[in-house]
Amino acid sequence: MSILLYGLQVALIGMLVVFAGLCVLVTSIKLIEAALKRGSKPSLPTTGNTAPEPAGRKSGAQVIDPLPAIIAAAVAAALGGESSSGFVVRRVRRVRGAPAWNRAGREEQIYSRL
């Protein structure tokens, strides 16, 4: 019977140690999260430009160069406008490191609509 009590004591002590360790871990993660949130507050614009962001743009989103969209619009206008071709540029985003099958599927989808 003493062996069973000794086993229960060891199990209880082990569970308490693990629980205490998890509490310390959760507390430290919360403190780090609070420190990072406090340190990364966006500053107000200093240039005097107070124009609001577009509704579709997420805060902190990467600004993409509009040159590809301008070129696509010029090509569409040269081909007779968007109503005759049915091709509309809705969004331009940069894709880096895409696998070959991903690029091939994207190109196939684009060329099937031309």
Kindly describe this structure.
With 114 residues, the protein is mostly helical. The chain has 2 domains: 1-40; 67-95 and 102-112, no CATH class. Helices cover 59% and strands 0% of the residues. The protein has helices at 2-39, 67-78, 82-85, 100-112. The longest helix has 38 residues, at 2-39. The chain is elongated and about 90 Å long. It starts with a helix and ends with a helix.
* Number of structurally distinct domains: 2
Work out the radius of gyration: 29 Å
Class computed from helices, strands and strand pairing: mainly alpha
Strand content: under 5%
Q: What is the element string, with H for helices and E for strands?
A: HHHH
Specify the overall morphology. Answer: elongated
Instruction: Give the low-confidence spans.
Output: none
What is the arithmetic mean of pLDDT? 76
Count of β-strands: 0
Helix run count? 4
Q: In angstroms, what separates the terminal alpha carbons?
A: 83 Å
Helix content: 55-70%
| Biggest pleated sheet | none
